[in-house]
Design brief:
This protein is of the alpha/beta class and about 210 residues long. It has 5 helices and 14 strands. It has one domain: CoaB-like (Rossmann fold). The strands form 4 sheets. An 8-stranded mixed beta sheet has the order 5-4-1-6-9-10-12-13, with helices on both faces. Strands 2-3 form a two-stranded antiparallel sheet. A two-stranded antiparallel ribbon has the order 7-8. Helix 1 packs across helix 5. The N and C termini lie close together (about 10 Å). Bound molecules: ligand PMT. The site of ligand PMT has 28 residues, from helix 1, helix 3 and strand 9.
């Protein structure tokens, strides 16, 4: 299958030296790309600004902002059978980006933000027979909110993680996730290395949709 994965944060510039972003390192999404390639799939990885090496055999497209990630996803979507949205897309971006470094005196302490598009919701009308997999980064018990996102974003599977749980979420080598399906089925996995979470996810999505 052709598998498209997004990973990492997006970075929303304020000026040439400052930005709004989040704590994603890309480890989880890169692990999914690697596991999918190792399972024999053709993988395209759309990566936000991260410092990770490209997994062997994976085609990588680098982006910075949410708008760039959306454009890359829209470009790559027609060729994919499975889309895994592991990126932590910034929900907001500064209303304007100054072409020059803002001086302290030019800033009044208020940063005006505008909403970024939701990538999954934007491409949902073009889903067709593709399998869509999302992640839900929650603080606290993740399944209720993840279940809402699963339905709202038209997903076939959502991977819920409590990003405040020890050893889970951002920047660590492990994750503790629950897989949620549209029929209400839940599968809670133990604390595992992200590489192993990724292997199980790839084995699961390969059974969906076809
Ligand atoms: O990168 P790591 O350091 O390894 O950390 C891993 C992780 C915590 C980033 C990862 O496991 C994870 O949870 N990724 C999703 C983070 C997120 O944005 O969650 P969300 O609940 O805000 O979004 C839900 C889904 O909608 C996600 O699939 C997201 O990619 C997608 N989304 C979100 C916002 C947006 N504007 N467009 C989207 O498509």
């Amino acid at each position: 299958m052709n598998v498209l994965v997004t990973a990492g944060p997006t970075r929303e510039p304020i000026d040439p030296v400052r930005f709004v972003s989040n704590r994603s390192t890309g480890k989880m999404g890169f692990a999914v790309a690697q596991a999918a390639a190792e399972a024999g799939h053709a993988v395209t990885l759309i990566a936000g600004p991260v410092t990770l090496d490209t997994p062997p055999g994976v085609r990588r497209v680098d982006v910075t902002t949410a708008l760039e990630m959306l454009a890359a996803v829209e470009r790559e979507l027609p060729a994919c059978d499975v889309f895994v949205s592991a990126a932590a897309v910034a929900d907001w971006r500064p209303e304007t980006c100054s072409p020059t470094k803002l001086k302290k005196g030019e800033m009044d302490g208020v940063l005006r933000l505008v909403r970024n598009p939701d990538i999954l919701k934007t491409i949902l009308p073009r889903k067709g027979t593709r399998v869509f997999v999302g992640f839900a980064a929650e603080t606290g018990e993740p399944t209720a909110e993840a279940g809402r996102k699963l339905h709202e974003k038209g997903l076939d599977l959502i991977v819920a993680n409590d990003v405040t749980a020890p050893g889970a979420g951002f920047a660590v080598e492990t994750n503790r996730v629950t897989l949620l399906f549209p029929d209400g089925r839940h599968e809670a996995l133990p604390l595992l290395r992200k590489t192993e979470v990724a292997r199980r996810l790839v084995a699961t999505f390969a059974t969906l949709g076809r």
